[in-house]
Amino acid sequence: MDKQVKSYQRNLSLIKWNGFFAGFRIFLPLQYLFFQNNGLSYTQISVLIAAYSFGVLIFEVPSGVFADHFGRKKTLALAGALLALSYVLFGSSTTFIPLILASILYGM
Q1: Using the 8-state DSSP alphabet, how is residue 40 labeled?
Q2: Which of 24, 44, 101, 106 would be 86's cystine partner, CB 3.0–4.6 Å?
Q3: Do both 43 and 87 map to the same domain?
Q4: Where, by residue number, does the polypeptide cross the bilayer (predicted)?
Q5: Residue 3, domain member (yes or no)
Q6: Res 89 pLDDT > 70
Q7: Which pLDDT belongs to residue 44?
């Protein structure tokens, strides 16, 4: 096999493993505890989870268009920066509204 075919096979294997481990969602119980520790009610926690889903829904197609226009590397770099920003917002927020924004950014 040539080098490019081996590279594709390796990438496919990595994608399969990524899907396997991403399906665990190990952080979810900790996320609930984090939100409860910050004094949020179950309703507010549900709103944050809905905001995450809203972010995924709204930005799925635009992120693909962005990737087609600007390239995958720039898109992944921007996604990483937005993910880091969402972590900063989660960690530094003391009120509910910034947590909603962080959840939407996390969904992007």
Answers
A1: -
A2: 106
A3: yes
A4: 12-33, 45-66, 78-106
A5: yes
A6: yes
A7: 93
DSSP 45-108: HHHHHHHHHHHHHHHHHHHHHHHHHH-HHHHHHHHHHHHHHHHHHHHH--SHHHHHHHHHHHH-
C-beta of residue 20 within 8 angstroms of C-beta of residue 7: no
Do 43 and 20 lie in a common domain?
A: no
Amino acid present at 101: L
Distance CA 66, CA 70 (A): 6
Asked if residue 31 belongs to a domain, the reply is no
Give pLDDT tens digits for 66-84: 889 998 888 888 888 888 8
Whether this model's pTM surpasses 0.85: no
Tell me the residue range of the domain where 14 lies.
Answer: 1-26
Q: Are residues 6 and 53 in the same domain?
A: no
Percent share of the chain, pLDDT over 90: 20
